[in-house]
Structure formats: structure tokens, C-alpha cells
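[job 4471] stage=fold_predict status=RUNNING
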Amino acid sequence: MTTTTAIARFDLVVLDTPEPRRLAEFYCALLGWRIVDEDEDWVTIRGTAEYGLAFQLAPDLVPPTWPDPAVPQQSHLDVTVDDLDAGEAAVLAIGARPTGITGKGFRAYLDPSGHPFCLCLP
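[job 4471] inference complete, writing C-alpha cells
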């Protein structure tokens, strides 16, 4: 494999949402991160790493209906937990919704804006 010089550095994953602050607070609670930048239509959160998440105002967002293909998911986040049952209780308490989709070592949920994410075992 050939190594190359990077053209760019990874910074953020940006999620559209009708409520940037609310979704930022959800992911801060989920990941233990904090809000580092905010204005009326954009909120950025980060932990200790160089990368982060941002939430962009999209008042007309149509969330995915996944697993129904009518409005398919275009991406999702995977986050790691040590215990799926404890993780599920915690994400439901902060506003996640279960999808009923599970597999070996993961469970899928929707965040408050309808974006899918999975709790995964290491």
C-alpha cells in the first residue's frame, strides 16, 4: 500500500435537524461531549479528540423512515457501549426512540430528529 500526503483533515460530521440545540444536547448527553460553538442555525460539539459533530438548521427536514425504504437512511452513527441493556436505558432516557432492529452486538435507535444510530458492543 502506498502512503500519500493528506489533502485534508477530518473535522466534523454534520447532521441536519429542525432543532440544532436540542439535537446537540442529546449527543452531548450520549457522548459526554460539550458544545463548543453555537449560533442560531448551527451548533458544534466536541470531546477530547480533534473531530466532532455539528447540527445544522434544516426546518424542512424529512427524517428517514428506515427501515421502511420510503425515505431511506443516507448515513448513521455507530457508538460503542460496554452493556447494551444499560446503554439502551440511558439513550431512551435522553430522548432516543427504539427501532426494534437488533443484531449480534448492536441495537438501532432514532435520535430526536429521526437520524438512525446504533449502540454497538466493542
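[job 4471] summary: The first strand starts at residue 12 and ends at 17.
[job 4471] exit 0
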